[in-house]
Amino acid sequence: MVAEYLAFRGFEVTEARDGVEAIELARKLQPEIVLMDLRMPGMDGWEATRRLKRDPQTRHIHVVALTAHALTPEIDAARKAGCDAVVAKPCDIGVLADALIKMMRVGPQVVDAALAPARHTRSLVQRGAPRGGGTKRRRT
């Protein structure tokens, strides 16, 4: 469903069956972004991401991990593997598409702001994103 919606929004979408095929396609097609499912048969998304980020030919590609298990250990493992962002499934695919468009224009730092989760959810964690607000409130 995500692939179909992204294609509808104008993205060129190519799907891989597993981590090995994802790496092969990334090398061949040189996409701007790879949406990486962390749980795949054979080579998982963590290992595929590590290999993409170690390879001089693909290290520039932004990797956004998609996971149904957005718990701290999984998020930390995705960050350590080199993911630029982690998005919990299910997510609002319209918001995801908008964030990916911004990511292609500006870089991965904008995804955190675009997909900032509500206080009671953990739908996205951005690698290297500053914690907390940065704005000061004035007393009136």
Task: Write a structural description.
By secondary structure, the protein is an alpha/beta fold. It has one domain (about 1-125): Rossmann fold (3-Layer(aba) Sandwich), CATH 3.40.50. It contains six helices and four strands; from the N terminus they run H-H-E-H-E-H-E-H-H-E. The chain has helices at about 1-10, 20-30, 45-55, 70-80, 95-105, 110-115; strands at about 35, 60-65, 85-90, 125. The protein has a four-stranded mixed β-sheet with strand order 1-2-3-4. The model is unreliable at about 115-140 (pLDDT under 50).
Short description:
The protein is of the alpha/beta class. Helix content is 41%, strand content 13%.
Strand percentage lies at 5-15%
The total number of structural domains is: 1
Our measurement of the CA-to-CA distance between the termini, rounded to an integer number of angstroms, reads 49 Å
Mean pLDDT: 77
CATH superfamily: Response regulator
Largest sheet: 4 strands, mixed
Q: What fraction, in percent, of the residue positions are helical?
A: 40-55%
What is the C-level CATH assignment? Alpha Beta
**Count of helices?**
6
What is the topology, as strand order, of the major beta sheet? 1-2-3-4
* Low-pLDDT regions: 116-140
Shape: globular
What is the fold named in CATH at topology level?
Answer: Rossmann fold
User: Structural class given helices, strands, pairing?
Assistant: alpha/beta
CATH architecture: 3-Layer(aba) Sandwich
Q: How many beta-strand runs?
A: 4
Oligomeric assembly: single chain
Could you state the order of secondary-structure elements as H and E? HHEHEHEHHE
Gyration radius (Cα, Å) is 15 Å
